[in-house]
Amino acid sequence: xxxxxxxxxxxxxxxxxxxxxxxxxxxxxxGFLSEVVRFDVPRLGDISGLAGVHLQCHIxxxxxxxxxxxxxMTGLDMSAPALEVxxxxxxxxxxxxxxVQAQVYDALxxxxxxxxxxxxxxxxxxxxLPDITGWAGVxxxxxxxxxxxxxxxxxxVLWAIDPLRSDGLLAIEYPYxxxxxxxxxxxxxxxxxxxxxxxxVFETRVTHEWNHGLGEIVTALxxxxxxxxxxxxxxxxxxxxxxxxxxxxxxxxxxxxxxERLPLSYTLQARRR
Length: 273
Description:
The protein is of the alpha/beta class.
């Protein structure tokens, strides 16, 4: 977790300045929503008046977007620099959102258990967590009875594929199932990289990540007192995750060649019994 936090802390300024996160647009346009949340809107339904918590909120663009849809939002993240940007974004956007620094597994120590109607988790979050059962317990513990989880995430099949192949083959290289030991990844460059366009040079290159199979995620939620209400797999994901992908023009990327071969992301919704 310390290695990963250092990785994310260093990339916050580049993300905040990038056009991908469009931080300035939130201040300029009171109706602007992040591309991630725009994708979620048809499945989220009406969230006006709900008390929501966004786990692993990063710099808060999705958190503020959910507040603009009518929810009273709290964002939680382990990165102090990310939360500093998120608080500034909320002020600039005129959004009443609260931000709390903590690891996901400590959320029940810093937030009131059973006080939320909605737990929201965005794309690229679960792969930083070593224990999906522990995560499911946190989600359930934060929700009131009848409260719901909305999760959109990169598909575990996508996380298992080698993204560096140049021969066009989709080859399983990394674990699909949760493993005790992390997959230690090094981006292989002289300096670290990130997924936004930037000229910044980063010192941190290594991350520790874990995959979780769909069955493991669903089983963990069921065991934590949740009931599944939606599971939808998608042909797209909001970044260029593999060679041979094309930008659809709506913030989503998918394979050019036979996209039906591969689920790239999924949306899961569940309700606390």
